[in-house]
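Retro notes, structure queue

What went well: the backlog is down to a handful. What didn't: a couple of records were mislabeled last round, so from now on we paste the full input next to the output in the thread. Example, using DUF4272 domain-containing protein from Lysobacter brunescens:
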Amino acid sequence: MTIEACALYFPLDKLPLKSVFPNGRSDGGLFRAPTWFEYDAGEGPIRLHLQHPDLAGHLQGFRGYVAQAPGSGEARDEALQRIARTRAAVGVSLPQPVSTDSPSFASLMALIARFDGFMFVFNSLLLPDGRFLVGPMAVGDGDAASEPPPLREVDPDAFRHEAPTDGCDPARVAQREQHYRLLAERGFLCTRWLPLHRSEDHIDRLRPADEIAARLLALHALFFWACTSEDVATTERLQAFIARNAVREHLTADEAEVLDLPREQAREEHAGSIGWRLENMWALSWMFGFEPEPPFFQGQLPKAVIERMLFDFLPDLDATVAGFIDSHTLRPVADIARLEDLYYCAHNAVRSAQTGSDTLPPQFHPVRDGGTTHERRHALTWTLSPGVDWDDTDLST
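Corresponding output:
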């Protein structure tokens, strides 16, 4: 799937774009506000047009579109609230149509995540967490994304591994072919010559359990800091939890910056983008015994799963990483490697769909739902990549 144009909306009058794209350039000067900012994400210059000639009139028309666009009533209300907060509308000129799996599109998503904005693309309103609120791409009433694609009957002989298997463990080949069939039964079609292993010596290894647990609890703290109120978790208890468990050491640099913000500011600027971390947390929690296993064919995790994970499975704010490990057993490496391989194949189907191939069931949107595949796979592959930082995890397919 490719885009030719889009627009970005932000609740800020001035955007410190140099802080995101330090090598970018603009036509601004000492006494002149810039009208454009340009940067390159590796596929040619992307120009951001910064000064809308009639922002008030544009937003009034936008509200009219949202009022009649496809989407649930709750989503429409959220869209209207975001439009009401908008202080800047930025047009985007791309050097050529780009894939939704491209570095250029990723850079735009990073920009709206950084400043709690949203994107208008495919005639739909897209949030940093991958949700479409309104428009043709929106799920709409009934939360159709939660309904699994129907099972299809497939011929096992049509889903054999097509790359050479000389010297390969027959059990590994059989597992992969089972994954090809499981995917196809739900309408996911991946390349059938993907490497059977992600390590050079073909041995699956887990990073230490305390690293995995520390990452899980760090994301837990990050979510509570940016997405909940004092009634749910007081700032004092959260700060004590963060210090007690050295949480910042287990976050990326960008994530740690969110914790460094005052809590209210963190909610205002980042609440919309932290939802993706719940998908990482589902996979990490499952590794320590949480059920259900994240199904590859399901989009964003259901509210019921979120509540059970956050409030029933994960510990309270008096906990420690050591205490969590003492009370939870990490699943065997073979179990985690099995699910990682299934998500590895599903991720290939998602990325093929994002470039225009017909490799996903109609119910599964390559951007909105494909992001969940990416995030769960990220957690699984990171766990099987000892010594590799989160941001350096190899997520190629």
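Agreed that this is the format going forward. Reviewer comment attached to the example: The chain has 13 helices and seven strands.
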